[in-house]
Amino acid sequence: MSKTNLKVILLGNKTSGKTSIINQYINKEFSFEYTMTIGQDKQVKKIQVENTILTLNIWDTAGQERFADVNKIFMKNSDIIILVYDITNKESFESLNKWYAEIKNHIDINKAIIGVAANKSDLYVDEEVNLDTAKEYCSTINSLLIETSATNYDSINNLFYQLSLEYYNKFIKIIEHDENKQVNDNEESKSFNITEDTSNNKEENNQDKKNNNGNNKKTCC
Ligand SMILES: Nc1nc2c(ncn2[C@@H]2O[C@H](COP(=O)(O)OP(=O)(O)O)[C@@H](O)[C@H]2O)c(=O)[nH]1
Ligand SMILES: [Mg+2]
């Protein structure tokens, strides 16, 4: 059974818009006022991708914007990591690589999805980072680049959807496909070997697998 309860973390320089992105996604609210985030905060939201409901446990970062403060426990077991930069602030973009290095230090990046949010896209007249430059960088770290504006719900919804879909395609769809294939293969080999295979144990094992798969399907979809 695939994992559907996911840990999502947002990382990036102070004022890049992490708290605003989460606030827009959860509460459909945006404020131009900057309030420093205090303490670690988790918000939960469910999202449907194809026929699977994913539960996103979204963690904001507070007081951890300095690299040295980002601890292993915060990053541990992250499934989706969103690196946020502010398109009007070149420094926030240049810091992405340091954030990426921190992630690689603490977790196995092959087990997670990493996405980059090019935030504050509504302020494009003050843009300091060209989108092509950002795209080029994202291809080197193998991550999706998604333009966002925390002022706009649809763009934030799209951010979480795209990354959830990427997670689904990479870690859920393939596993479920393999599980189904295995059951079908077992069914086929059973019908071919029915005269040869007289072992009760084997038969029970096959039956167990069938039952388990039936249970999985019920809870999953
Ligand atoms: N115009 C605009 N302002 C934003 C956007 N996202 C965040 N801000 C503003 O940027 C400031 C810092 O945002 P915040 O979410 O607190 O950043 P954090 O430090 O990364 O959590 C606040 O004044 C927000 O109102 C955005 O997409 N567009
Ligand atoms: Mg914040």
Structure description:
The protein is α/β, with parallel strands linked by helices and 221 residues long. It has a single domain, classed as Rossmann fold (3-Layer(aba) Sandwich), CATH 3.40.50.300. It contains 7 helices and 6 strands. The chain has helices at residues 18-27, 72-75, 90-94, 96-106, 131-140, 153-192, 200-220, and strands at residues 5-11, 41-49, 52-60, 80-86, 113-119, 144-147. The protein has a 6-stranded mixed beta sheet with strand order 2-3-1-4-5-6, with helices on both faces. The N and C termini lie close together (11 Å). Mean pLDDT is 82; it is low at 192-221. Bound molecules: guanosine-5'-diphosphate and magnesium ion. Guanosine-5'-diphosphate binds next to helix 1.
Q: What are the defining features of this structure?
A:
single chain, 221 residues, Rossmann fold, 6-stranded mixed beta sheet, 6 strands, 19% strand, globular, binds guanosine-5'-diphosphate, binds magnesium ion
Outline:
The protein is an alpha/beta fold and 221 residues long. Helices cover 46% and strands 19% of the residues. The protein has helices spanning 18-27, 72-75, 90-94, 96-106, 131-140, 153-192, 200-220, and strands at residues 5-11, 41-49, 52-60, 80-86, 113-119, 144-147.
Tally of helical segments: 7
What is the total number of structural domains?
1
Task: Kindly report the name of the CATH homologous superfamily.
Answer: P-loop containing nucleotide triphosphate hydrolases
Which cofactors or ions or other ligands sit in this model? guanosine-5'-diphosphate, magnesium ion
**What proportion of the residues form beta strands (DSSP E)?**
15-25%
User: Within the CATH hierarchy, at the fold level, what is the topology?
Assistant: Rossmann fold
Biggest sheet strand order reads: 2-3-1-4-5-6
Helix content: 40-55%
